[in-house]
Amino acid sequence: MLDRLNVFSPTGRKIKLLHYLLILLALTLPFTFSFPIDLLGFSISLFVYFLTGCIGITMTLHRCLTHQSFEFKYKWMERLGSYLGAIQGTGSPLTWVIVHWEHHKHADTEKDPHSPDKGLVFLKNDKYDSFKFNLLEYRHIIKDKFQVLLHQYYFLIILIHAAVMFSIFGMYGLYWGFILPSVIGITTSIINNTFAHSELGYKRYKQDNDSSNVWWVALLTFGEGWHNNHHAEPWDWNFSRAWYEIDITGSMIKFLLSSKLAIQGEKW
Ligand SMILES: [Zn+2]
Ligand SMILES: [Zn+2]
Known about the structure:
- The protein has 268 residues and is mostly helical.
- 56% of the residues lie in helices and 2% in strands.
- The mean pLDDT is 84.
- Residues 103, 107, 197, 211, 227, 231 line the site of one zinc ion (ZN).
């Protein structure tokens, strides 16, 4: 299985094209609907961004699958979260996990897949193809056939998702339920990868990387902006270290743990 899997197939140029296309389509919004007055549409976008960004990317792909800081009690919860993370349009969960883990191992060095040392970090996927890493480290996700399916049919899944939104809700659903939330997700990923590794914010833990705690990034990304805390203790599902460091995802995981719908990770 490992040798037959092209880890970066759903990234590279194709995913960059997808991002450009989504951004271009989002720019036509003001000419299509009564933007920005359409409060219902905007609320739908924010809700979908919460599902894909918070439950999908932050909770499932990042804190569960990459760092294994907790496990969902039921496999279907992990799979639903992975699916939600996938349909945001920022790449397959498998690629996300590997790229992020490599980022932690090589943060702010030449080997970092998205170091902000050269300005804004657009999702530099074309760089990934040349990366060398040990796939055995990612056995826990690669052995799951569902994850491999999400990876190998990534663009088809995105296309089906967009088609379903269109067939049920028409252009309205396609724009507010898919295109805009995806563009919000792409933008906040760029913001997080750039400004949470910068001189903005504060550094609670002294480390040999530039990770920083930036409150407004945390607000936009459901807690991810407490990034210096996270790099210091990546096994911890809770990114907050003080009452004023609001970590929405961490609070939700705390709730799942207390209601026995999640299990603490092994490093605890
Ligand atoms: Zn980082
Ligand atoms: Zn991380």
